[in-house]
Write a structure and sequence with these properties.
200 residues
Length: 200
Amino acid sequence: MCPFIETIRIEDGVACNLAYHNQRMNQTRADHFVQSTPLDVRDYITLPQHKNQDRIKCRVVYSNSIEEVTYIPYTLRHVNTLQIVYSDTIDYHYKSTDREALNQLFTQKKSQDEILIVKNGLLTDTSIANIALFDGYKWYTPSTPLLKGTQRAFLLDKAMMHEEEIDIEQLFSYKQIALFNAMIPFGEIIIQIDKEHMHF
């Protein structure tokens, strides 16, 4: 069994969405280990002494216990075009260090910046992020993500978007697609949904 990970954004001296990371970490541990006393990730994170630093990626590697905590500066990756790829067998229900299946799909991106994964005809995620689609009025996130991200859970709890089963055939009925994850706040990557930016 590969170790699991939580990727936590530290910005302006604040570790973001820790309650959601704690919940997912302890649920993952409970699902895989018979004896798993809940842990608090706060006990393992060292926050920077000075605010207004660059965005920091805190990577917590764990199994039934915390194995490693590392910190690196985070640079937002440019994503402006998506290659639609298909896999009915991809499974990334738990956020783990084993990304081989995702990496294999990513090799199909051709000249595009990122992939958009379709499973059983339904939109899921990109290789790095959850997604939401804008119809001109509201944002909708697929009810069939590969991974239920912490930022996604936060946005749903705040009613900033709604879950919807979205068939690939419905893609062009939406106007924009947003990519977001623990490191990429909602709104930082938004792509127009048209044939210039979406590739089959």
